[in-house]
Design a protein that fits this description.
Layout: E1 15-20, E2 25-35, E3 38-44, E4 50-52, H1 68-80, E5 87-88, E6 100-103, E7 107-115, E8 119-124, E9 127-132
Parallel strand pairs: 5-6
Antiparallel strand pairs: 1-2, 2-3, 3-4, 6-7, 7-8, 8-9
Zinc ion binds next to loops.
Length: about 140
């Protein structure tokens, strides 16, 4: 086991979810280089391949092939939430479980958990993501 220092910021050596073209999955990656605030090069923690950072599978809209269960859970959560109250996601805002938000890349999602006080787990149609909040 290795000790992890701060996981709450994007920085070289940090971990981030991204698309792995080899694994064909969104997986945890380690950031190797940053351009400004954004990860530029990463390597896949699963297969070790180095590549440019991508949030989602390239060339596909998000949520084109959600699994039944995932889509079911997502739809259930959205139905239980007040979709008309969806807020545009901003890392400066604070969220709590049950909040509905609109993300520019991932679309509409529902906050499912708060992590470390600085991150929220949000279930989007394409899957769960960790987002920064209260920055
Ligand atoms: Zn991989």
């Amino acid at each position: 086991m290795k000790t992890e220092t701060s996981k709450s910021e994007n920085r070289p050596g940090g971990t981030i979810d991204g698309w792995c073209g080899k694994c064909k999955l969104v997986l945890a990656h380690t950031i190797e280089a940053m351009i400004g605030e954004k990860p530029a090069r990463v390597h896949c923690n699963t297969c070790g391949a180095q590549h440019a950072y991508k949030v989602n599978e390239p060339g596909k809209a998000t949520g084109t092939q959600p699994t039944r269960t995932r889509a079911g859970r997502y739809k259930t959560l959205l139905k239980d939430s007040d979709a008309s109250a969806a807020k545009n996601y901003s890392p400066k805002d604070r969220y709590q479980p049950g909040d509905v938000l609109e993300h520019p890349s991932f679309g509409r999602g529902v906050a499912t958990a708060v992590k470390d006080g600085t991150k929220i787990e949000v279930l989007f149609e394409g899957g769960s993501k960790l987002l920064v909040h209260g920055r």
